[in-house]
Structure formats: C-alpha cells, structure tokens
Amino acid sequence: MTVNNKEIIREIIVINKLGIHARPSSMLVQTANQYEADLFVSHDEQDEVNAKSIMGVMMLAAGQGTKLRFRTTGPDGEELLNKIEQLINSKFNED
C-alpha cells in the first residue's frame, strides 16, 4: 500500500460576518479530526497552529476577510482541505 504524504497548501478567505469565533472554531476542529492528515493554519505573519486544536484555532482571531493559509500532510489531505473549504464557504451555516 502506498501512502501519499505530500504537502498541500491552500489559502481560504473567511467570509462569514463574525469570523472564526468559538462555534466555527469547534466546527473546523471537529472536521479536521475526522481525517488522518495533519492540518495546520496561519494568517499574516503569525506562526502556524494545529487546526485539530480548538485553542490554537481560536487564538488566530480570524475576522471576516482574513486570508487563512492551510497546510496539510497525510494520505487524505486534499479531501480534508476540500471539506474545510466547503465549511468556510458555507459561512459555518451562520448567515
């Protein structure tokens, strides 16, 4: 069996009005934890945080319009990024 551990980077803009507050952070982390791949996120010049950690994601303080940079490695990384992008583009079902 071949395991694909290539690194994938994708930038996604936060579009919901309230940004990544507690509820969206929880949804993002829950989604990320459904996959084997590692997922890290950052914006601007901040250090990357583990996107499988609720505290890490909340500390990003990512408001509406923030461009988040996601980096993943693992066998299902592309699938994970697609799911995260869908979640963010759905405005976390808030609007």
Short description:
The chain contains three helices and four strands. The protein is of the alpha+beta class and 95 residues long.
Care to describe what's here?
With 95 residues, the chain is of the alpha+beta class. The protein has helices at 22-32, 54-58, 77-89; strands at residues 7-13, 38-42, 49-50, 67-73. It has a 4-stranded antiparallel β-sheet, with helices on one face. Helix 1 (22-32) runs antiparallel to helix 3. It is globular and about 35 Å long. The model has no long low-confidence stretch (mean pLDDT 93).
CATH superfamily: HPr-like
Task: Give the H and E element order.
Answer: EHEEHEH
Q: What coarse outline follows from CA principal-axis ratios?
A: globular
Radius of gyration, in Å, reads 12 Å
Give me the CATH architecture, please: 2-Layer Sandwich
Low-confidence runs (pLDDT<50, min 5 residues)? none
- Report how far the terminal alpha carbons are from each other: 43 Å
Strand tally is 4
Domain count: the total is 1
Strand content is: 15-25%
- How many strands, what sense, and barrel or not for the largest sheet? 4 strands, antiparallel
**Average of per-residue pLDDT values:** 93
Structural class: alpha+beta
Helix content: 25-40%
Number of helices: 3
Features:
four-stranded antiparallel β-sheet, 22% strand, 95 residues, 3 helices, alpha+beta, globular, Histidine-containing Protein, Chain: A
Task: Map the helices and strands.
Elements: E1 7-13, H1 22-32, E2 38-42, E3 49-50, H2 54-58, E4 67-73, H3 77-89
Antiparallel strand pairs: 1-4, 2-3, 2-4
